[in-house]
Design a protein that fits this description.
Structural class: alpha+beta
Largest sheet: 7 strands, mixed
Strand content: 15-25%
């Protein structure tokens, strides 16, 4: 589930724009008829400039130019019928209408070109998103999964938040993380961590070894990065959800604790010894402690980045995630993620200050271990 804030539109639908063209045409006909039937002391021809200006609001440069040419032709007709084209007044009106029509057409052409460039940039962003953040399948093994990503930048598709999930023998291995900072450096760090996770998740390593590998990948990447990126780091949770029992194992590297929901109750999976965020040091496997938690088939596991709990309303109050989850008592992952996404955007007035990533996981009752 992706949220695209501020989508681009390259133009109106064909039928809509070509239906609206009747408006400037009717305007040209009406102004011409009124001017011809009016006394020569009354000049309505300048109103013809409204026709190309109106066309530029819903059509492209070509149609705008055609309407502008028709408006200039109408002005020439008016001048011919009202004393000839050689009078100074009519020459000035025709010249002014011609110049304004050309300017409107040029501006519309420039706008269309800019929109095409933005569309190309968006297509690159979408491709990059598909490479970095593969859409999570809605089922992995015995798990049902729903995810959402909301980029804080209005025209962005991806940012510094990340997640990934892979099936492993006996369960599913996941990571969710948040890179300190924004923009291209954050995206680069997210790419490094996701690549390291995907490259190691299938090697049947214990979670502390996976966390150490991720930490070293981020640390050494930052060590060779420009100086302005050297203070970056990544908070992350790496966890295994097992098929053979109602439990999960987790390593938390400075990330907000996952939540477990059941019958309106919310339980925070707080580790006793949280590790440092990734990238601050070159870690060893022994730096990470593996901790286990219960996770039954009638519960929902919610993973999220700090953009959720740091979202503020107009008064500056933080988003009350735990209270909202307890009120909703939503057991379906897809419905929960949709509801959380919509409520977050509504709470923030449609403008998030940080990227947000959310994953909801449940094990259907038919997969309960007996």
């Amino acid at each position: 589930m992706r949220v695209r804030r501020g989508p681009l539109r390259e133009g109106r639908p064909w039928r809509l724009s070509h239906g609206l063209v009747a408006l400037p045409l009717a305007l040209i006909v009406a102004v011409t008829a009124l001017d011809i039937s009016s006394p020569t002391t009354i000049h309505l021809g300048p109103f013809l400039v409204a026709a190309p200006a109106l066309t530029a609001a819903f059509a492209g440069a070509r149609l705008t130019g055609v309407i502008g040419a028709l408006a200039v032709a109408a002005q020439i007709l008016i001048g011919h019928l009202h004393g000839g084209l050689t009078t100074a007044n009519h020459e000035a009106q025709i010249a002014a209408l011609f110049v304004l029509s050309v300017l409107v057409t040029v501006f519309r052409y420039a706008r269309d070109r800019h929109q095409r460039q933005l569309s190309q940039v968006r297509s690159v962003a979408v491709a990059a998103q598909q490479v970095l953040l593969w859409p999570l399948p809605r089922r992995i093994g015995r798990l049902r999964i729903e995810s959402a990503y909301i980029a804080a930048e209005a025209e962005a598709e991806i940012g510094g938040d990340l997640y990934a999930a892979v099936p492993v023998p006996g369960g599913t291995r996941l990571v969710i993380g948040d890179v300190r900072g924004k923009g291209l450096p954050a995206i680069g760090e997210a790419a490094v961590l996701i690549g390291a996770f995907r490259g190691s998740a299938y090697r049947n390593l214990p979670l502390p070894a996976i966390a150490a590998h991720l930490g070293n990948s981020v640390f050494w990447n930052l060590a060779h990065a420009p100086e302005e990126y050297s203070e970056s780091f990544v908070t992350a949770v790496v966890l295994d959800v097992y098929d053979d029992g109602p439990r999960i194992e987790m390593v938390n590297c400075g990330h907000p604790p996952p939540l477990v929901l059941r019958n309106g109750l919310v339980r925070s999976l707080e580790v006793t010894e949280p590790a440092l965020p990734l990238g601050l040091t070159a870690p060893l496997e022994s730096d990470y402690k593996l901790e286990s938690f219960a996770f039954g088939p009638d519960e929902v596991l919610l993973l999220y980045t700090d953009g959720v709990i740091e979202t503020r309303d107009r008064s500056g109050a933080f988003y009350p995630l735990t209270d909202r989850l307890a009120q909703w008592n939503e057991p379906d992952p897809a419905a929960l993620v949709r509801r959380l996404r919509d409520d977050l955007l509504r709470y923030a007035g449609g403008n998030l200050s940080d990227d947000v990533a959310v994953i909801a996981i449940t094990r259907p009752p038919e997969y309960a271990v007996r």
